[in-house]
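Here we describe the complex-level prediction in full. Unlike the single-chain runs in Section 2.1, the two entities below were treated as one system.
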Amino acid sequence: MRRPTSGSNGSFPRAVVIEALLAVGCKIKKGFNADELEVEDEDGGIEHHYLPDPVDYKMVEYLIRKFSPERFIPALHRPPPH
Amino acid sequence: MNASTARAETPKMATAAHVQTKDDKHAVVLSLHVMVEQNGATWFAQGVELDYASAGSSMDDVQDRFARGLRSTIEANLKRHNSIERLLKYAPVAVREQFKASAMAFELNLVSSFDLADNLPSSFPFHRLVFAERTQTATC
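The structure predicted for the assembly as a whole is:
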């Protein structure tokens, strides 16, 4: 797994986030534009997102909480601040 | 969207307002509060009465991405399910408690509010989008 490479604030490159979510079986469709995503949850609910690059770590936590069958993804884990 | 901006105000916790027009029509206006915070170079916006979030590269960018994303989300749910029922979920308790704690500690500044009435289907229960910046890390 690739490690996050951008920023000291715990943000993640968009490509890393999408790759890691897809790897755990998250239902993601990429949109026409690079920042456009459609994600589906377990109940069939759909969310549309315009994801910047890099992605704020809290947004990554949100996507994992709502859409990942695995609630914890090591590649997207941000250690707590000291 | 019609925007009105008022900086350095603390948003009220109430999410509903009664409106009466000149021709004696009454309506209840529901607000969807969105808590915005900066984490270094990135920004995060989390809905309080609706569990939807967005990220951005600036305060303006995160608001724009939230509004566009929410509209597209509603359209996608209507297209697939002919309903937005699956979307209408509160944010987790921790988020709502954080919002409440921040408001009570005067650590939320109203950034902007948008009138949604003309832009979204009538089945969407919220009429206003209210963005509030969380200025401190409140504990709850």
